[in-house]
Amino acid sequence: MDSTFGWRSSPKRMRLGILVFLLCQSVSSQPIDDIDKLFKWVLDLGGEINAEVRHNKDGFRGIFATRAFTENDVIAAIPAATILNTGSFNDSFAVPTLTVLRELKDPNSRFKPYIDMWPKPDGIVNSCNMDLKYAPMWKSTYWEKNVRDWESHLRALLNGDLDADLEYTIREVVGNDPVTLDDLKYACAISSTRYVSSLRRRRLLMAPIFDLANHERNCTSTLSAYESGNYLYFLAGQDINAGDEICYSYGSLRDDYAVAHYGFLPALEDPPRLSLVDLPGYDPDMPYSHEDAPSEDPFDGTPEELEAEMARLKGIYNEIKSTPDSLPPKPKGEDYIYDMMKGLEERRLNSLSYEIQRIAGLLNVKAEL
User: Which SUPFAM superfamilies match (predicted)?
Assistant: First the structure.
């Protein structure tokens, strides 16, 4: 499934063998009241934390340096006893989903200080749990199908239709507690947006403290390999001043991929980059991997190739513009998902327009939109 894809790393990160998936949630669902309990739990189990949690200038929960760091200084040492092992690379999507659900259902879970810091069901969104009423707002056959497929997978898991292909049934992992489709959607969204993957051990792991760091595309902070010893180390990738927000790069995310997998729009880029599904040569049947991410080089070719590419992009642009909205307009700030999807549409159109104009300039023609 998509949630097990890696991302494009620097050689240094590849050597460390860690891939990361996180989420930036809406402010209302980002509790910090219980952060002291989480920190105490990590410290009592032998961890080290040289940071604090508060809301950043954009209103999102983030992690901030409590002292100055130089490259490779330890921001946090996360004990193995606090890390939730949610399965292996080879497992189906159901294993991390059911592992997380088991802990959510257990009032005596030893991970409770960590669980209490997870976003609540109304504060997390990705393809696992996006309400189907928003699916047409993608105005993309590929991404709309992605959302509907997750709904089908999770319904099948709930009904037991996929038991022959799954490692565990719901009852084997969760027991006799009642489980609803919404439970599965929530657990799927939590697991698929918050785990780290250890390449050599081939395990999917959820690590506290570290997953409070927000995404910044060119951030150089890293995670240590998690192959031996009892700690996962969150390391500074460059000099960081006391009081600075600590970031982590989730990879070179295109806007549509970030919305589908993490539920947020990355920072605006100048110049804008095409969405994943709008890239030349995009193959919806090939799984995306950050290790083999699309080229960042601008499209170029013969005049005939440039003309064909400009015509293709115009076709996408006009299709988006001519597709009516599936939901009535809503006031800004009333519905986070609606605003995000409309923001994504605006960015797609802007990036398509930019690329069309760029190619028109190479051809020395005027592009009408």
Answer: SET domain (SSF82199)
